[in-house]
Amino acid sequence: MKQFLSNAAAYALMSAVAVNFAAKDAVLQGAIAISTQINPETIPKNVEDQINAIVISVKNRVPSGNKLALLSHMHDILYDEQAYHMNPEAPFKIEAQSIHNALEESSGSYSVLAVIYYEVARRLGLDVHAISLPFFMMVAVNVGGTLYVDVDTGRHMSIPELKEAVRLSDAKWDDRMLTPI
Predict the structure, then answer these.
(1) d(CA 160, CA 166)
(2) Residue pair 78/119 in contact by the 8 Å Cβ criterion
(3) Are 120 and 112 spatial neighbours (Cβ–Cβ below 8 Å)?
């Protein structure tokens, strides 16, 4: 029997996350709470299980636990094998904000893809942070140096490339944009 979160239960989950945003899984729990409002078929345990399946697949390929190898294989699984990408209709479709839908379709908004990337990397033990640029989210991973990851393609971007992306969005660059959120 499927167990869905009612509006009251989703609100309670979001309230708990908001109170303890420093909790290690607060970002994922917040995304799940939002997803339950968008797609009533969202089952929190299934979302957790899908994230864990990706983590286990990566760990099975890297028994040494080498951080750079974990990141490389995570990229292979998410972008080469499962073809994760930004849904081009994301700005216009609320469904693209659902982590449940993104995991099912390997496609979602920048923010949802950032949550998936962030949560998989965090569970792999990588030093990962979300950063927010105008109009999109990215992830920064520290593996002996900071790599800025475009969660649409998995491509690593340099700071000059980030500055150019911000300029193209008609926003002004501010070094504080690289501050982890």
Answers:
(1) 10
(2) no
(3) no
CA distance 106 to 166: 26
What's the rounded mean pLDDT across residues 163-167? 91
118 with 135: CB under 8 angstroms? Answer: no
pLDDT digits (tens, 9 = 90+) for 57-96: 999 999 999 999 999 999 999 999 999 999 888 777 888 8
Query: What's at 115, amino acid-wise?
Result: V
Under 8 Å between Cβ of 173 and 167: yes
| C-alpha span between 120 and 138 (Å, rounded) | 14
In this predicted structure, the answer to whether residue 14 has a pLDDT above a threshold of 80 is no
Contact 101, 38 (CB under 8 A): yes
- Rounded distance between C-alpha atoms, residue 175 and residue 104, angstroms: 35
pLDDT, residue 23, reads 59
| Cα separation values, 5 from 42, 102, 173, Å | 8, 18, 40
- Give the mean pLDDT of 29-47: 91
Instruction: Round to whole Å and give the CA distance between 97 and 170.
Output: 24
